[in-house]
Design goal:
Length: 161
């Protein structure tokens, strides 16, 4: 239930990108009110996803991903994938009723043959392409767009014993 609200997902994504953020900074970056961001940051804290940065208090306190979430990726990773899938299925079910200007999407996949170092390089290059869009203030006429990139080795199936 903690991640059913799109603003909470956007806040987690923002924290993943920038490290720490105040409610005011989050509001500016996400095009939301600071009150809404503050409320949802507190809700994310309640569910154990974020924490205030140590030593910061008051209205301008910065928030960050909880240390275990940020470093292990075991708590947030599966939830992020679930939300990505949920959001994509919602899009498929409702795109015919979306405003005409938003009735398109881009979905593609590739099987590449990479070394482990190349896999890391490709991931870094994808992040570098997305970074300027993630850091900017939301332009007029924009809306949230899910971007999912999963790079992982395709392991052979285990044979039945």
């Amino acid at each position: 239930m903690a991640l059913r609200h799109p603003l909470r997902v956007a806040l987690l994504d923002l924290l993943t990108t920038v490290g720490s953020v105040t409610a005011n900074e989050a509001a500016r970056r996400l095009g939301e009110s600071s009150g809404a961001c503050s409320f949802h940051l507190r809700q994310l804290e309640r569910y154990g996803y974020v924490e205030p940065v140590a030593g910061a208090h008051g209205r301008a306190r910065p928030w960050r991903l909880r240390a275990t979430t940020a470093t292990t990726n075991t708590d947030f990773g599966p939830l992020a994938r679930e939300l990505e899938d949920e959001g994509y299925h919602r899009w498929l079910a409702r795109r015919a009723t979306a405003p005409q200007r938003w009735r398109r999407d881009e979905a593609f996949s590739e099987v590449l043959h990479l070394t482990p170092d190349e896999l890391a390089t490709v991931a870094a290059e994808i992040r570098a392409v997305l970074a300027p869009y993630a850091r900017r203030r939301a332009p007029r006429g924009s809306g949230p767009v899910g971007v999912v990139a999963r790079l992982f080795p395709l392991l052979p199936e285990e044979e039945d014993a």
